[in-house]
Amino acid sequence: MLPKGNFPEKVYLNGEIVTADNAKISVFDRGFLFGDGIYEVMMQLENGIFYKRAHLDRLQDNLDKIGIPYYVKGIDDNLDGLLHAAGLKGESCLIYMQVTRGVAPRKHSYPKNVPPSVMMYALPYNLPPINLKNMKAVLEPDFRWHRCDIKSISLLGNIMTNETAMNANTDEAVLVRNGIISEGSHTNIFFVEDGNVITHPANEHILNGISRQIVIKLCRKLEIPVIEKPVAENEVKNMNEAFFTGTTTQVASISQLGDHIFYKNDAIGEVTARLQKAFAELRTMDSSHITL
Fold it and tell me: What's the CA gap between 122 and 44, in Å, rounded?
């Protein structure tokens, strides 16, 4: 039996939909042994799965990057069945999926001719139209590996830094690599300086978030200048606003980052507020087919 907690009722596992209690994997699955796999998270909102195609495209791209031979059409073809079985067809929910390299004897090299392990589930999850929380964040060293562009299920570095944020009674940990701010433990970060939106380039040191890409497109649509360049930790004091983006975070204002206070009350910066409104308006349309 599963311990008490917010677990799904149904799980898709390797071609079958089973109860959560019956969703079992081998102890020799490489995801369990090595963290050898890729994951993705999507939201089903009022008008379907938000940017489903973009999320699935990223999942496929990441599987290709690490050489797992799986085509995400198999996940797409089974999503409706999972949502129906879970009683979440047309309901607001979070959809989690992961693909590992499969079950094989424990050796570091990739096994040959082994079918990947594929799992996904859905949980009821409601997102407000706009995330009005003003978030506080700590600054922590970014000691993760050098391929943060890969959405690996091995997230120990992210987990450790996020725990530091929780213990400090803040909302997020913002990571600093060689004096440069990279991203949050589970978010991307943007700054606003003199009306310009600034964010770290999409290279191997950050995950190129779907919400990050959406916000950059919204900036261009709203004629807000976007600069993709690193921001140094010692430059934070010069910034006028800052915000996080993420699948469940959406666009969230930052009131304090480290020792720097952007707002002492519930105020939200002008540029951040414009982007929050524009992001919320995307929920009024079916974005499931849109690529980025």
Answer: 9
Classify burial at 97, counting beta carbons within 10 Å of its beta carbon; exposed 0-12, middle 13-18, buried 19 or more: buried
Measure the CA–CA gap between 91 and 289, rounded to whole angstroms.
18
Strand runs labelled E in the chain = 10-13, 16-19, 37-45, 48-49, 93-100, 117-124, 135-141, 172-177, 180-184, 188-193, 196-199, 226-228, 231-232, 241-246, 250-257, 260-261
- Is this model's pTM higher than 0.85 or not? yes
Residue range 62-89, pLDDT digits in tens: 999 999 999 999 999 999 999 999 999 9
49-62 b/e (C-beta count within 10 Å ≥ 16 → b): bbbbebbbbbbbeb
Angstrom distance (rounded) from CA 153 to CA 155: 6
Give just the sign of the alpha carbon dihedral 164, 170, 171, 175: negative
Give per-residue pLDDT as tens, 199-224: 999 999 999 999 999 999 999 999 99
Cα 94 from chain centre: 12
Which tokens hold the place of 171?
């909302």
- Reply yes or no on whether 229 is catalytic: no
Length of the chain: 292
Active-site pick, 151, 217, 221, 264: 151
What H or E segment, with its residue span, contains residue 1?
Answer: none
